[in-house]
Amino acid sequence: MSSFDILSLKEAALVYLDRSGGLEELCEACRVYEGQQQDEAVYTFCISINPTDVIEVDSELGDIVLHDPLKATKVFQSVCYLAIKTLELLDKIHTESQINIILKFTHLPPFPEYTLDLCAFPRANVLLKPVFVEGLVIALTRVTKYTQGARFLCMNEDCTCSSGYQNIRVHTPGATEFATVRNDFSCKVCNSQMKEDMKLRVLGDKQLVKLIPYQALDLLRGHQKASLKYQSVTLFLRDELCNSMGIGQTYKVLGIPAHVHQWPHVTWSIEANNIQPWEPECSSKVSATFLELLRNTVGSPWRFSAIAAHCFGLEIAPPGFYNSLKLCLLLSLVQTATDSKEMFHSLDILVCNNESLILDRLLTYSLSLAQRGIRHQSSTEMFASLSRDEHGAGTANIHAGSALLATGGICMLGDLGCYKKDKLEAIQTVLEGRTVSVFIPAKKYGEDVDQQLSFPLHCSFWALIDIADHSHRSNRTECAALGTADLGPIQIKLADAFGLLLQCRDVGATGLFHTTHILQQAVQSGAGLYSCTFSTQDYQELVAQARLLQVELSSGAEKIIHGYYMASRRLRTQSQGVKMSVGSIKLLISLAEAHCKLSLRTQVLEEDAVIAVLLCESSVSLKHGTSPLVLPPDAAFPCDMSDVDSLHRRDLILDQLHQDILRFIYAYAPGADSYITEE
Ligand SMILES: [Zn+2]
Fold first, then answer.
1. CA–centroid distance, residue 156 to ligand 1 (Å)
2. Residue 147: CATH number of its domain
3. How far is the CA of 44 from the centre of ligand 1 (A)?
4. 46, 142: one domain
5. 415-452 residue pLDDT tens
6. Which of 332, 427, 614, 648 could link 347 by a cystine bridge, Cβ 3.0 to 4.6 Å?
């Protein structure tokens, strides 16, 4: 490239800086440096770049920015040096090499070649060109230091390089620490050894993050797709980008791929430039069949969700079975949010049963409807594990376990009977605290002091206890209060930590009924045996749409929830010595909101609160015994649901239960309204 071409590029860069406000930012940054006492080897300036705007100023410069960002950086480095010298912005800068320019891309052109699919191979063809990648953070390191820039001096005192700022080394994308600072550089003038001037070294922050393609999560749902393998990619986050990514979260990263040479290996990694939270798109329309159901059930706030639950998972369990569980699974699915800004209202479910095989299948099937669903495998870590970082820093690398991978979704733990005592205790601690703690021993990871890190947990847990397994003989049965469930090997505290406890008992002839149902399904290959005709996709779309709804609590619903909570707390503390935690009020609100969302409404009605109270009271009774609020065994589904008449009958019974709840509140929490305002 001729010197004339370079001159015109620099001119274009100056015009762009002037138009985009970059020059003003440069002046501001210089003023900040001017105020600092200490001199440094290099001074870093960030320049915001919108390639489209650059192209408008000069197409050639725009092309270089998009396809050779290192060269573009050089151009802007010269221009900034000239500006600083001409305008006398910063006396401390003596040579151009003291200027470290970081081009911050604000946008990329909206064309496919600027998006890199992490599943596509070979990736290595894309080098040093800014691209978008999308993925999920599965591991990250602690923040460590790296050398942004350093000054080297010739050890020969007579040489001109023994002072001044001729020999400055600056970190470039993809370079290792070894490339920036080491002790075997020789002087270009006299060939003597060079020595770093340690006083002037500039350090920056660095963090390594492992990203996987979002599709890889499908493998963790428990589906069998043995032929697929996914590869993670390492991102380098530097300086102000450190700590901007959370484990288990999804992001769209604008980055520059680079080869990192670390003899004898060369790894392909990405230098992050701009990081945005991102959520994979999902269909948000409700199928025509559910819309029709919505129209037909408009008269009752209970019917839509009841039929949706009744017809759910018919491939696995015949209609009429496990209706409460199916409803709770749908409520839990609806109450998930991957958006990290939103509050996560968890809805954990523990099912005690003597029919683990079918229920395990029902839970696995439901998990496939979750936006994010992880089935925990005993061979993997449940919360978090540590390893040493392999990219030179040697610091602790924290890997997400199943619960963190399930961020914003559901983590299915399976049968709790399969876990050892210490694991069950760990589950209880995590459920109670809603955080995952990681202990980093200083000695092992080159730190000065031991560290305890904690990560917030945003997922709901589903688990089973098989009480048919006679190897766990419960000691609860002898002295248990009326109405409690046999929890097998599970401590009551752990059951308490799960929000909802459900009992699914299967007796005698139903086993045969199941067999008949499954055989019929097999023979007729899923043809509609019953009048319910909602496909798995219909449910997927219903859940996806419902979880996006923003709902609002009506005052009627709030009164029932608070009143029931106050009454129940007073009563159970007095008679059973059970402390109803604040967690139960969160659970009640979460259930009522979820029922409202599942019914595709946005205002939480008293009727939603009634369902929440019925589910919650049943759960507390299974844990601690019944209360004067006497409920039928399957309170949310007190009668069969075979036809329209039975739906009407159910509405009448629920209306009656609604009155019972109100009476219960007036009897045991008179003036609950005033408590509400107090708390
Ligand atoms: Zn020299």
1. 6
2. 2.40.50.140
3. 27
4. no
5. 998 888 899 999 999 999 999 999 988 888 877 888 88
6. 332
